[in-house]
Design goal:
Layout (H helix, E strand, L loop, with lengths): L1 H12 L4 H23 L18 E6 L5 E3 L2 E3 L1 H14 L4 E6 L5 H13 L5 E4 L7
Parallel strand pairs: 1-4, 4-5
Antiparallel strand pairs: 1-2, 2-3
């Protein structure tokens, strides 16, 4: 009778790890497939715009409307006149600061193109004016 009990104990001591490995590989494959999909579905909340206050004086603003109109201090300017006006402003006041405002519907290409024209006009330090997240 004692020999029967020993045989039973021997069979309990053996653990078959094959199903555990199968499960591990199954989970690994599932995560490898789902992780790239989760990257594109991630919702990102951008931080609020908490930049420094706008200067009180000695600045001019250049605006780009949604229709592509360029304004210097609310006066319409053609793209051809823009460069000469900016050069005159820089020549009259070398410490003048320039604020760039662009409508949210403007394309990135249009805003960068306007920034390039402003740089060609002699302004290297351009302040981009944005609307804060909390003010919407």
């Amino acid at each position: 009778m004692r020999r029967r009990r020993d045989r039973t104990r021997d069979s309990i001591d053996e653990i078959n790890v094959t199903p555990l490995l199968d499960l591990t590989f199954l989970l690994l494959i599932a995560f490898m497939i789902t992780m790239p999909l989760m990257e594109y579905g991630t919702q990102v909340t951008p931080p609020e715009m908490n930049s420094a206050e706008l200067p009180d004086n000695n600045f001019k603003s250049v605006s780009l409307t949604g229709k592509g109109t360029i304004l210097i201090d609310n006066e319409p300017v053609t793209p051809e006149e823009l460069l000469s006006k900016l050069k005159n402003l820089k020549q009259d006041n070398p410490k003048l600061q320039l604020l760039l405002r662009a409508d949210g519907s403007c394309s990135y290409k249009d805003v960068i193109g306007l920034m390039a024209k402003i740089r060609n006009g002699g302004f290297t330090d351009i302040t981009l004016v944005t609307q804060g997240e909390s003010s919407k």
